[in-house]
């Protein structure tokens, strides 16, 4: 019997969002096997992107004022 690898194993994700949202996303992505970094500023995000650029995938989500993430 072979055990399947987590679906995001080998992926690197950077989460830049409000701290409460970032923690939830970090937890979910880690559980799926990704290596996750949290950033609080755009320059910090860019620094991480530059460090891992060949393995990096970025997904952004923007919500209008008052919309729940």
Question: What does the model show?
Answer:
Strands 1-2 form a two-stranded parallel ribbon. It is flat and about 45 Å long. The protein contains two helices and two strands; from the N terminus they run E-H-E-H. 33% of the residues lie in helices and 14% in strands. By secondary structure, the chain is an alpha+beta fold. Helix 1 links the parallel strand 1 (12-16) and strand 2 (35-39).
Overall pLDDT score: 80
Which spans have pLDDT < 50 for at least 5 consecutive residues? none
Which structural category do the helix and sheet elements fall into? alpha+beta
- What is the gyration radius calculated from CA atoms? 13 Å
Helical residues, percent:
25-40%
Report the order of strands and helices. Answer: EHEH
Task: Give the overall silhouette.
Answer: flat
Instruction: State the distance separating the first and last CA atoms.
Output: 39 Å
Number of helices: 2
* Largest pleated sheet: 2 strands, parallel
Number of DSSP E strands: 2
Strand content: 5-15%
**Side-by-side strand order of the widest sheet:** 1-2
Write the layout of secondary structure elements.
Elements: E1 12-16, H1 19-31, E2 35-39, H2 42-51
Parallel strand pairs: 1-2
Could you give a quick summary of the protein structure above?
The chain is 33% helix and 14% strand. By secondary structure, it is an alpha+beta fold. Helix 1 links the parallel strand 1 and strand 2.
């Amino acid at each position: 019997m072979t055990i399947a690898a987590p679906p995001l194993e080998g992926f690197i994700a950077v989460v830049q969002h409000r701290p409460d949202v970032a923690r939830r996303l970090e937890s979910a992505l880690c559980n799926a096997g990704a290596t996750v970094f949290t950033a609080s500023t755009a320059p910090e995000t860019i620094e991480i992107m530059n460090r891992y650029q060949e393995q990096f995938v970025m997904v952004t989500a923007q919500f209008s004022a008052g919309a729940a993430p």
